[in-house]
Automatic annotation (TrEMBL):
Residues 31-40, 661-674 have a biased composition (Polar residues). This is Uncharacterized protein. Residues 1-58, 650-691 are annotated as: Disordered. InterPro entries: NDUFAF7_sf (IPR038375), SAM-dependent_MTases_sf (IPR029063), TPR-like_helical_dom_sf (IPR011990). It comes from Phytophthora fragariae.
Amino acid sequence: MPLPVDAHPPESVRPGTLTVPEDAVGVHVTKSPTPVTSDSSDGEATAATPPPAPSAPVDVAAAATSAASGKADEVRELEMQAPPRCQLEDFTPFARCHLWKLMMSFYDRQGVESWAQGIVPHFITSNTFIAKRYSNVLRAYFRDAMRPGSASPVDPSQPFYIVELGAGSGKFSFYFLKALAQMESVLDFPLSNIRYIMTDFTEQNFNFWKTHPALAPFVKRGIVDFAIFDATTDTELRLYSSGQVIRPGELANPLGLMANYLFDTLYHDLFQVDGGVLKEGLVSVGSKRAEEPDPLDPEIIKRLNNIFKYEQIDETYYGETRPHCNNILKWYHEYFDPASSGATILVPIGAISAIERLAALSKNGLVALSGDKGNNNPDHFRGVSDPHIAVHGSFSVMVNYHAIGVYFASRGGFALHSPQEEASLKVSAFVLPANAVGENEMVSSAMTEVYGDGLDRTCAKRSLQFPHLTTAFEDDIVSFGPNDFFVMQKSTKEDAEAPSLKAVLALMKLSGWDPDVFYKFRDVLLDQSPTAAAKLKQDVMYGIPLVWKNYYALDKEKDVAFEIGRLYYGLHEYDSALAYYTLSAQEMGKHHVTSHNMGLCHYSKKQLELSATCFEEAYALNRSYQKAATWLQRVRKELGIVQVDGTTTPAQTTITGLNGDHQSGNLGAQQVSLSMPDHGNDKTSAHGPPQ
């Protein structure tokens, strides 16, 4: 068990950390860590100190008195010089510290706006490509599970529940469900018996899903349900639509689990192996401000000032009721021997606890897919240091997928990891077969097969019972997976000066016609499609409707329908352009540029009355929008030179409010371009600048 805090010597505090002496009574401002300026020969960081003064004989008694006085003066001087630090919490085990309360507060207060406003990055785990790859892996699992003698048999007459932890915006859920629906005819398990449960701990996200039109068809079919579920504490699922309550041991089939960009936000334990000694990390959470009136204000995350220290523990840290978690510690304690440089290890105990509680719902095991920023190679943990905390609106840490794999292996299951080291997104699959042991039980082999190099061999051996799953993971995740796709689209956008239309179409096709990919490369499509060869134009025309079928309303800064309308206009498909401009107005609200472009479509179709109506609306929405005013004059002039009751009526129209002047409808020599509709730069007030 952990030693009491006051039993540790001062050197247990992280090297380079300034501590206030015990006799410094009345010190109200906690000191920030001392700057580290150099490394000592043994590799430990050392604080900057002035060179020693020349020695001289001193009176011992006077020196003692002077030292006591000098100590107090030093404390006062440090108090004056050090930047302020508000201590929000004294040293606490990392998994129970105040940081995780700030995390919950951030997502609870922000809700779906975290994704809608781009505060939290999400494209890498919320696109059509990753959803298709995940669905392929699940399909392969069904093939294995339906085989005679399967290690995880499924009953097609009973529901198969898939729980998505931390569904967030619901965008991945939508794409995954669409991918499953598209392969319904070849699924070995009936789609009608799949129950996809979107969960999150905050009611804001829950309310967003319930009313989202893209999810409605799946809700109507009974495939989708929702639940407020706190992954850190809850033990049962209370489903919203069906009213069903799922308790431990009630599910006949294995449980499916999806978790993307979640495990890095659940609480973690922090450990070090230093000189063969196993230690627990504790943290004093603080802020760079002197005071924090609201300790749960998520803005504190941007000004964190934390201090770490480490205390010796043993391999039974998690107690007798959690032997598999203790096996994780034993694995690392043995792997990083005393002669090594030591290691700093984050154990995603929040994720493991959630897996434990969800796995308990089923009598026949679990299959999980998770993508996050993380590591699955224990050699990356070498070195003794404090954990890196990445701040991006909220904060996150690196997920130790290797530790989760040890946990599954300890229970008789296995893990599939991608060997790619350089990756923004690591995706792993985990399986607990039907004969897996409970979280409180030990495997008969007592873990001897999974220590050291035996872990990889054991996982490989056990995975042979799931040949289709293993092959699909290799094909869809390892060979060219979600991280590779993310890198490709990002590189095409940022590294290529002018990608060709062919390249962009190939990328969009690879993505599965993802709307975000379309939006990123809309300028290439708009610039090159009108002059492309006929066959290439036909390919563009084929893909546009597929992009819209994948549209999921979320980002208020991306008017996808408007951009599709512009593309159709450039291809002289005016009816289609009008249809998407209408959708834009419905989705994003009326805007003068949208109305103006609709006017151009009607004009191109020689529908002058409708054209005039649209230009009038554009001008009414923005009286300073000169383009609409100019076009309105032109159309009114043309409308005036028509046959009315057999006579010709000249145009005599006047528009008021143009730059404060009255202007005649006679355009004179003024020229108006019909080449393309307005590109939308004037839409910033409503939809933000193009991205």
